[in-house]
């Protein structure tokens, strides 16, 4: 610490110490790039979202125009390393070809990981070989089964688990879950007991502190609990599945498709989609904190009818729209 002080000055070192000791809520944001359904309109782009987890970007579905919307949102391609595709309908994956080509033109070198139901690698590889004969980076495919929940991604702070859905072809949603974080240090208490810096990680992870005189200072005196881990659930195209409430229990934000209003319930069943009212029923049953509805049918020029339908059942409902950013 003395060396750092000599190199950078005492004030900067103090800021670094405070950042280490006093935990803050990390960034977890959802960007809506597109919220329309299969038929193109001038109002909406095809389905695509980006979740920003501590400045690491994860794309969920990649409909046409996703890369354009990505740039409009002022997101950085270099921070995007993982793409999750719910199913192989065009309005959820046609944007992949253009995005992959653009990253190649930009001279990307980092691997790009794509997670999807089976079949995407077989579809993509021949066209990639034709249009991008000299790839500057690797595209790695991770294909999964859609019948049971599966852990498909994990790093030191996050897990992604599939949510089995029921559509006309194999389809899954995704549950993004933060891992529990260490306790936050109470600066005044560690100063009072003169706890050395090298003990901080042990204390943040639950250890008591023993002073040089042999006195044991309980961890509860030195720390406060970290904020509860946050969870975001993405439910793409599906019929209404009430049993999902168990897997979605208590999520901070639930995105659920709401293609139709209740007066088109028969059409929703026929096309394996959900109404806004059904999405709200699921959010209520799951005890979600907030519901975000999207994937709107082209027949609705004003989606407020869908919002009104959902809020009657679940008041904490938001309407998706392009460039909306929701902080979780």
How does this structure look, described?
- The structure is a single chain.
- By secondary structure, the chain is α/β, with parallel strands linked by helices.
- Helix content is 29%, strand content 25%.
- The chain has helices at residues 2-8, 10-21, 66-72, 90-93, 95-105, 120-131, 187-192, 200-204, 219-222, 265-270, 276-286, 304-313, and strands spanning 28-34, 48-53, 56-62, 80-84, 112-117, 139-144, 151-154, 158-164, 172-178, 184-185, 209-210, 216-217, 223-224, 231-235, 253-257, 291-294, 317-319, 325-327.
- A 7-stranded mixed β-sheet has the order 6-5-4-3-2-1-18.
- Strand 8 (158-164) and strand 9 (172-178) form a beta hairpin.
- It starts with a helix and ends with a strand.
SSE map:
Blueprint: H1 2-8, H2 10-21, E1 28-34, E2 48-53, E3 56-62, H3 66-72, E4 80-84, H4 90-93, H5 95-105, E5 112-117, H6 120-131, E6 139-144, E7 151-154, E8 158-164, E9 172-178, E10 184-185, H7 187-192, H8 200-204, E11 209-210, E12 216-217, H9 219-222, E13 223-224, E14 231-235, E15 253-257, H10 265-270, H11 276-286, E16 291-294, H12 304-313, E17 317-319, E18 325-327
Parallel strand pairs: 3-4, 4-5, 5-6, 14-15, 15-16, 16-17
Antiparallel strand pairs: 1-2, 1-18, 2-3, 7-8, 8-9, 9-14, 10-13, 11-12
Helix pairs in contact: 1-2, 11-12
